[in-house]
Specification:
The protein has helices spanning 14-22, 60-68, 91-111, 122-135, 141-171, 179-193, 196-209, 230-233, 262-274, 342-351, 360-376, 378-403, and strands spanning 3-8, 29-34, 50-53, 81-84, 213-217, 220-224, 243-245, 255-256, 288-293, 300-313, 319-331, 338-340, 408-427. By secondary structure, it is an alpha/beta fold.
């Protein structure tokens, strides 16, 4: 089998580096030769399972950075092999390997503290150079004493780096935070930015809406993106139906799609654009609907809206605008209509399915009358926006109490909130009797 060998250096821009690496995905055997420009930035755990250091940097952190591109979360191989290529007759390699790398690894193994050395550490550089010079001369007693001095100097530098790392770890330690204190907040974060299942369901529905096909292919899916616009297809190799997965670690042969993947971000932007304007060749995305469903026994209205809150940093007076999407709704039409919570509104949106195709005239008439009813409830609707503003400040205050930070005060919500979608759910007539 042919081996795909690619070379990446600092002469290439970031996008060119990524493109070159992504093209290697279709090759069964691959070798990537790179300079230290790739020791940070691009993760390689999906395509590679071993690292060979063909030079020996005197800074051990460089070795960790290189290996960390491959040996990281998401790596499917149970073992990642790493090799150090060094010359027995190379005095610099011998000193670096003996004094620096071995010492640093011994300290990290025994204490669990990661030691960071700056690339401009003059003391260590001087000690290495002196030891190299002595390595090439006759080993007299004086020479041995100087070598011991260099060894001691480097050991002292490493001890200082170790103490600094321990102090930093103590400063940023949060062992005192009870898990129960932040569990609810973590759930709310997933709710706001989308958990794994939300991303998976959105991508599948969006691809189908745009004319693509989605075939279950455990442990993932096979997409046919032929009908999707070019700026979305470009994220996958041309001429192929990509295999994708929404779980991590990602199975071999599949491309991971998370909420931060460029394809997902641009897919979201395109779907949102279709909700506001026409695009030739693509169906619009509805922001309003009127359906009959068995999920409700009384007319129910759900509003999806964007609330924007202005909060002020205490002390400096700097104002910040934050945004969030929220759901609110009510059952019934009169003054006795019951208000729905966020979770109730979300459950209805996820579970309600249309039973029949209502005549368009009936949909328009129902929607028009419901709009008037909604305007009569603007007071309760605006109150929700105010509550969200106070909730945001409460979260900032809680964060400050736990880990420190700036304090914020509520100023005002931007009213009225932006209506993003209106959904009217009608009961099936047979269920009324």
């Amino acid at each position: 089998a042919k081996v795909d060998i690619q070379v990446v250096t600092s002469e290439l821009a970031d996008e060119q580096r990524r493109e070159k690496i992504d093209k290697m995905e279709s090759s069964a055997q691959r070798v990537l030769v790179v300079t230290d420009c790739l020791s940070e930035g691009i993760n390689l755990q999906d395509l590679f399972t071993a690292v060979l250091h063909y030079d020996l940097p005197w800074n051990p952190n460089r070795i960790e950075q290189r290996e960390g591109r491959v040996d990281r979360f998401g790596q499917q191989s149970p073992n990642v092999k790493t090799y150090l290529l060094w010359g027995e007759d190379n005095p610099i390699d011998k000193v670096v390997l003996r004094i620096l790398i071995h010492k640093v690894r011994e300290i990290q193994k025994s204490t669990g503290v990661s030691i960071t050395l700056g690339d401009d550490n003059i003391s260590i550089m001087d000690a290495v150079i002196k030891d190299v010079i002595l390595e090439t001369t006759t080993r007299t007693n004086e020479g041995k004493q100087l070598t011991m001095f260099a060894d001691e100097l480097i050991t002292n530098e490493l001890d200082q780096a170790k103490r600094k790392a321990e102090n930093l770890r103590s400063i940023f330690a949060h062992e005192s935070i009870p898990p129960a204190e932040i569990e609810k907040d973590l759930v709310e974060v997933d709710e706001a930015i989308g958990d794994l299942l939300s991303v998976e369901e959105f991508v599948k529905a969006a691809v189908i809406h745009l004319g693509g096909t989605v075939h279950p292919d455990a442990p993932g899916y096979t997409f046919n993106l032929t009908n999707l616009p070019g700026h979305l297809r470009i994220h996958f190799p041309s001429g192929k139906n990509p295999k994708v997965s929404f779980i991590s670690p990602t199975p071999p042969g599949y491309r991971y799609l998370g909420r931060n993947h460029e394809f997902v971000e641009q897919l979201c932007q395109f779907i949102l654009a279709l909700a506001f304007e026409d695009r030739p060749g693509f169906r619009k995305v509805a922001r309003a609907s009127v359906i009959q469903t068995k999920r409700v026994s009384i007319k129910t209205t759900i509003i999806q809206f964007r609330v924007r809150n202005v909060i002020r940093e205490a002390g400096s007076g700097i104002e910040v605008i934050s945004e969030e999407m929220f759901l609110w709704g009510y059952s019934g039409s009169g003054p006795d209509a019951s208000i729905l919570s966020y979770s109730e509104s979300k459950s209805l949106l996820q579970e309600a399915t249309s039973q029949v195709n209502l005549p368009i005239e009936m949909q328009l008439q129902t929607f028009s009358s419901e709009t008037d009813i909604f305007h009569s409830k603007s007071g309760a609707f605006h109150k929700v926006a105010e509550e969200r503003a106070l909730n945001l400040v409460e979260k900032h205050s809680k964060f400050k109490q736990l880990v420190g930070g700036k304090r914020y005060d509520a100023v005002y919500p931007v009213l009225p909130p932006d209506i993003m979608g209106v959904y009217v759910l009608l009961p099936v007539p047979g269920l009324l009797f």
